Structure formats: structure tokens, C-alpha cells
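Figure 6 in text form: structure in, sequence out.
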């Protein structure tokens, strides 16, 4: 708000006599209070991530955001596909499941996953990441733990439905979250690190399942139940702790950044024309997205990639065992392909960002 000072006249004494008094007029001046937005707009915005100050800022963001999100996604994917390892350890035998019933339980996850993806991300914008991400993580951890207690096809089916609904908002949510911190050219490398968590989950999932299965018989529980007990409980604990270490958006002034650093993040996003935390949702945005032909092309690409990957995640332990290997050997042999995939993912992403080639 502009404030104007009223003109005033003062007497200036230049001598001891009254006739030597002269009038001095003070002219009106304008005092303008700048908003925080105008201050941000004055920050030089033509710097790239080659700027030393921007490099320091990116390192700070990476150390605070990327390791936490990667850990959470690793746990997310591990809880999603550990049913494949549990099948090898006797899940279908204990529950007396047919092949069709087992496949139905796998598919049930994706039905609610698809239905709740968009609503979950709308809630994310309303409740903030520091609340919604830990909440859904705790929810799917509870669902995973309860799979260890099921004793029928119906119980497993219901738990998988709940698991899909809870996990549905996580990966799209963290992609939106990253876009609120990084420029578009910088996201590819970071998202690839997140995708590497899938490979790590596959690498350690079999080894972890083999180790946990050694607990078979403890407290009268089968080994496959312990897989869900332990992995689900770890998810619940980390989900509760994530309330403490997940920050919100740059405009919320998180404690790990200074005021100037927060302003710089906002300016970088604005000049990059990326999605910012200050955007307001409207249904017209949803409509324009569905009218964009590129959405369907990329969806088809994602479908053709995801279907074989998930099929291997769920069935590779059984496929390897059917080749004549013992169950423990089959679980251990699932690790090498994922280890190689981890190296390939990181290498491809590095050069994609380095040369700005997609």
C-alpha cells in the first residue's frame, strides 16, 4: 500500500533576527511497501543450474528430498509385489487358492489403484504432502500387515483392494511433489532415482523373503505370513516417522531452506513455466488433459512397458522355480536382473539430463 506524506513547512533559522528567517518546504514523497512477491520478482532469474549458487541449492534439495522419497517408493513397491515371494513360500497352499483366485487378488490391487489415483492427488494438494503421503503410507502398511493374518480368499482379496487404494496416490503424488521443487529439465534424473527403487526392491525382495522365510514355525506362523508381518510393520513405522521429515512446498518456507533460497526456488519454477505450488485447481485443467492426444500416446507406451515388468515382478519366483530350482534358489535368482536394471536406469537417466535428450 502506498502512503503519502502531507506537505509541511518549517522555519529555518539562519541568523538571530526574525527577518533572516526563511521558509523551507518539504516536498511530498512516496513510500511503497513491497510484497514478498515483488521481492521475489527482482531476483535474477536468468541463471541456470550451472550457476554455482543454483548448484548449491540443488544439492541441498537433493539431500533433503530425494533419499527420503526413494526410500518410501522402495517400500511402496516392495509391499506391492511381495505377494509373489509369499506364493512361493506357500501362500496359495495355505489359503487353498486356485490359479484364477490368485490372479484375481493380483488384479484387485490395480482396480482401486486406477480408481483412486486422481482423487488421491487432488487430496494431496488440499492436505499438503507432509500430511497426505505419511497418511497413505501408514494405511498401506496396515493393509500389508493384515495380509499376514488372512485365512481365506475373501480376506486376501479385500486386503489387496485396500492396498491398491492406499498406494494409488503415492507415485503420481511424488512426481507432482518433485515438479514443485525442480525445473522440468532437472526432474528426469531425480525420477530415475525413484524408479531405481523398483530395481532395488526386486534385488533385495527375493533375498529378504528368503531370509524372513527362515522364521517359519516361530509362534506357529508360516514363513509367508512373516513376510507381511515384518515388511508391513516397517512400513507403518516409517510412515509415522515421515510426518516429521517430509516438507511441503517452497512457498511454505520449509526450515531446511533460507528465505532467499525459497525465493530462488519459486523464481526458477516460474521462469521454467513449470507447475508451482501457487496454482489453483480447476476442472477445466482436467478436461484439457483428457483432450490432449499426447496423454493417450504416453499412456499406451506406459502400458506396454508396465505390463511385462509387473508380470515378472509377480511371477518370476514361480517361473524360476518351475525351471527346476529349489524355492530358496528361485528367490535368490530373482535378484541379478534387477541389479542390472538399476545400473541401466541410472546410466540412461544421467545421459538424458546431460544432453537434454528424451
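Output sequence:
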Amino acid at each position: 500500500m502506498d502512503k503519502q506524506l502531507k506537505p509541511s513547512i518549517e522555519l529555518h533559522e539562519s541568523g538571530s533576527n526574525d527577518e533572516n528567517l526563511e521558509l523551507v518546504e518539504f516536498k511530498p514523497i512516496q513510500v511503497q511497501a513491497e510484497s514478498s512477491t515483488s521481492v521475489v520478482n527482482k531476483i535474477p532469474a536468468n541463471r541456470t543450474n550451472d550457476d554455482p549458487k543454483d548448484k548449491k541449492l540443488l544439492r541441498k534439495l537433493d539431500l533433503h528430498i530425494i533419499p527420503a522419497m526413494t526410500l518410501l517408493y522402495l517400500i511402496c513397491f516392495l509391499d506391492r509385489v511381495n505377494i509373489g515371494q509369499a506364493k512361493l513360500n506357500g501362500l496359495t497352499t495355505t489359503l487353498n487358492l486356485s490359479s484364477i483366485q490368485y490372479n484375481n487378488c493380483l488384479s484387485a490391487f490395480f482396480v482401486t489403484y486406477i480408481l483412486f489415483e486422481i482423487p488421491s492427488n487432488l487430496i494431496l494438494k488440499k492436505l499438503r504432502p507432509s500430511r497426505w503421503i505419511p497418511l497413505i503410507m501408514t494405511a498401506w502398511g496396515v493393509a500389508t500387515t493384515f495380509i499376514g493374518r488372512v485365512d481365506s480368499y475373501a480376506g486376501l482379496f479385500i486386503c489387496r483392494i485396500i492396498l491398491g487404494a492406499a498406494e494409488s496416490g503415492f507415485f503420481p503424488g511424488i512426481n507432482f511433489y518433485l515438479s514443485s521443487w525442480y525445473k522440468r529439465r532437472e526432474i528426469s534424473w531425480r525420477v530415475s532415482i525413484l524408479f531405481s527403487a523398483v530395481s532395488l526392491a526386486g534385488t533385495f525382495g527375493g533375498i529378504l523373503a528368503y531370509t524372513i522365510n527362515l522364521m517359519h514355525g516361530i509362534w506357529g506362523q508360516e514363513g509367508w505370513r512373516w513376510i507381511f508381518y515384518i515388511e508391513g510393520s516397517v512400513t507403518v513405522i516409517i510412515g509415522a516417522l515421515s510426518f516429521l521429515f517430509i516438507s511441503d512446498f517452497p512457498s511454505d518456507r520449509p526450515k531446511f531452506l533460507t528465505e532467499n533460497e525459497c525465493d530462488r526456488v519459486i523464481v526458477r519454477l516460474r521462469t521454467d513455466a513449470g507447475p508451482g505450488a501457487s496454482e489453483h485447481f480447476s476442472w477445466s485443467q482436467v478436461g484439457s488433459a483428457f483432450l490432449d492426444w499426447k496423454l493417450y500416446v504416453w499412456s499406451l507406451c506406459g502400458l506396454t512397458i508396465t505390463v511385462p515388468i509387473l508380470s515378472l515382478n509377480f511371477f518370476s519366483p514361480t517361473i524360476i522355480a518351475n525351471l527346476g530350482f529349489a524355492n530358496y534358489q528361485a528367490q535368490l535368482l530373482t535378484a541379478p536382473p534387477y541389479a542390472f536394471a538399476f545400473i541401466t536406469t541410472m546410466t540412461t537417466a544421467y545421459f538424458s539430463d546431460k544432453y537434454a535428450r528424451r
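Caption detail: The chain has one domain: 52-280+321-354.
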